[in-house]
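Please predict the structure of the following assembly.
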Amino acid sequence: MDLGHELVKEQLFFRKEMMERVSWMIRLRWMAVAAGFSGCLIGYAANWPLPFVPLNLIFVFITLYNVLFFFIEHRLPSIKPQAVQAFTIFAHAQIVLDLFALYAILYFTGGIHSPFLVFFLFHIILAGILFSPLSCFIYSILVLLAAAGLILIQKYAILPPQPILFESHLFPRNLALRDIFVSNIVLAAVVLITAFLITSIKLSLRAKGRELLRVSKELDSGNAKLKALYQMAKEMGLCQELQAMMDSATRNAATIMGVKACSIKLLDEQRRRLRFSSTYGLSEDYVGRGSINLEKSPINRSIIEGSYYAIGRIDQKDYFQYPEDIRQEGIASMLCLPLRVGKMVLGVFCVYSDVTHDFKDEDVEFFLLMTDLTALAIENLRTELNKTWFLEKAAHQLRSPLNAIDTMLKTLRQGYLGPTQTEQAKLIARCEQRIENLCQVIADLLDLGVKRTDLGKITMHPVNLGDVVRTLVHLYQSQAAAKNLNFSCDIEECLPDIMAKEKLIDELLNNLISNAIKYTPSGGRVRIRVARESCDRILCEIADTGIGIPPEDISRLFTEFFRSKNAKELTEEGTGLGLVIVKEILDRLRGTIAVNSKLDEGTCFTCFFPVIDGP
Amino acid sequence: MSTPADILIIDDDRDLVDSIEIILQTENYQVRSAFDGKDGYDKITKKIPDLILLDVMMATDTEGFDLAYKLKENPKYRDIPIVMITSFTQKMAEEGPDRFQHILGEAWPVSSFLEKPVDPEVLLSTLEKVLSETPAKA
């Protein structure tokens, strides 16, 4: 079906030329008619012995049919945009009528001796341009037969003889048989050679045109692919999270390649298994089947071991680890390429098709471009993530012994090794508390470290601050009630979104709200308010009636490990890092914070967030 | 009373393993322990435990997960419930490097998840819950 469509498109491309020629012929005919009438007029003035009445009638006839053609030509495209056949018939009708008219003119202007005899050639040329070579040669033979007819008419006086106006060198007046024979041969040669030349030139031009069309189509599709690849690269470049980036790559690759599905599988540390890291168009069942053992999957193994690419068709059963699952998923063939950076293979990039078409060389080449691009992007993001990973691992190493000590202390205090005295249990509980605090310091340090390492490397999206606060407040309700606090929340309706990440807002407000609850004595009040501050800022206020901050400490609030003296006196709990994290998050969200506090009366923290630009 | 459940602890922190052993023995569980994935697998092949308490990070960052997946692939060991203990909070696992992300994205091989430090009461209630949800061995 595709092929048929292409053929029609190609025909239309060439028929466009015919349509143009057809209207050109109509325009040309007006000029011929004008020249004809003028010729008659001049002849009449010069007293040439011409049959003016029939000649003028012929020109009137030409005018009439040209008017008809003119109207038909204007109606033709509206009949059917692909009326190729109609145009061909229309062109034939014009040539045939023109030849008849010419034949009549020749008869009245000297028959075979008419100086207009060579005008036959124009029609041969036109037929050669417009029609198939066969049609052109048929017209040539018809023209020659018509010339022979003229000779017969004259020689045997079938029709009344007309005056011979001019002396033609081609056909002598005596009409001797030998001369006629030679003249006829010459005329035939001229006509046929013209037909041959014109059709050969046209065929070669058309072949070149076809080649040009093919090249331009190829360029078009290549251009479209490159554009899509550029879009893909751009989209991937904007992703700062590995998962989002890989998801973008699989989605784009499937769309650009025009296939059913796509996947990225990355190698595990032992380089023995491939795990689905991102998929597009594959069912959960298929992906959830688990990882792929390279020993059992020759197609993936060949890729990891250095094959340039691999194409699998589902009928090659022993090529896959789970052939039945692949069949059920509706996959008929797949193309897999290594995700490679330099000599290191990170994993496998696959596209899955639901038809058994073998992927063509150009598909492979293009997919290779996408694969290399994706591999580079993965490696770049991984390098970033590795820095974070180091911090997390360091924190893990620090926390492990503390966790073991904590579990041992709990085992001891809760009497699993025999009863402990109350005082002993109290002391052990204090040890546990200190350890817990130390673990919190490590967690906060890690959090801060991670934030400072990959500063700016975070994907933000529109977030409704009111919604986040509503959820959080709900979580703190019971904690506040347990402390007998008046805990209230006031959120303005219809607030615009801010650019953020919900987790960051969560963390920021968690720190501020838990502080407010922690440092407000029983019976006090904690109030949260979210409102529009100006046309481009939203504020979130967390106000308490707690212990307050000594004025001299306010400037040091956001420095690492700083805790006010009165806060320390109230509780051991606290790392001195919470507000540093708050500041770090606000910096990242391009927000600001203001503190208003009176010792023993309370504190109010106000965070300002820029709203998203535009309506 | 039925035979006590056989619990296998796999963790490279001997102090932690000792504490958990004490807690579980007090509650009359049968306890065995292993200090790395390979040793743990050997002990499983010798006798299938009723439940495995498994650490995530041992010699490698994902040794615990690797063992869990290895067990899930073997029909003989597929149904052993696994309780994972780790000092990695869920949040870190979500936000951590891709080796964790893509593991979490897959079919979860673990019945339950315990965060270190292990609170004895939470540990015991988790074990009880997981064991009660596991169909008895044929």
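Chain B has one domain: 6-117. Chain B is about 45% helix and 15% strand.
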